[in-house]
Fold this sequence. Notes:
Elements: E1 2-5, H1 11-22, E2 27-32, E3 48-58, E4 64-66, H2 70-84, E5 90-99, E6 119-123, E7 137-140, E8 146-150, E9 157-161, E10 165-168, E11 178-186
Amino acid sequence: MLEIYDDLFEPKFLLECHIAARNLNWHYGNKSGSNQYPYNSALSKGNHIFLGTLLYQRKSRYYTVNNTPSIFIEVLEHIVKDVIKDHSLNLYQIEGNLQFYGQTGTAHKDIYVCNNKDRTILFYPNIEWNEALGGELEILDDTGAVIDRILPLPGRVVYFDSTITHRALDPCVLNTPRFSIAYRMEKPFSIAG
């Protein structure tokens, strides 16, 4: 399951999202595919390291970390309520990702809750983007072969099954930031009666 949505946001709103992304508390050490608890620790092992920031994490039923600018919550609400229209999705984590030339990601899956019904929503708050800038999201099959490439166009939303193997390529142009906001969603299991 993979769906792509474009033209969901007005240019002024998208500019505000871009400014909010630029002003996030970026740090080097964001890991994709981290496999040691606690997953956001600087010492945990992961597939690759790039610039990022943890914006929201539901650590337990009673403990949540939330540093998310409200504009990114607005984006999520619009996507889930008005576009995807799946009200069973529960927010688990929000991460900001920032890549520059030379920071290509490695292949990984977004499985954090160990639920094969989990979903990822990627939002690109880039104000300008075109094919010459590169930075595609690559979708890979089980053998590691690329089966799709998706440009991080301004305001684009990519909604997919978190078990899909993917990676983010770096921009092809120096000093060009590639922003993405990753919403990790869990979809509860339903028990048929």
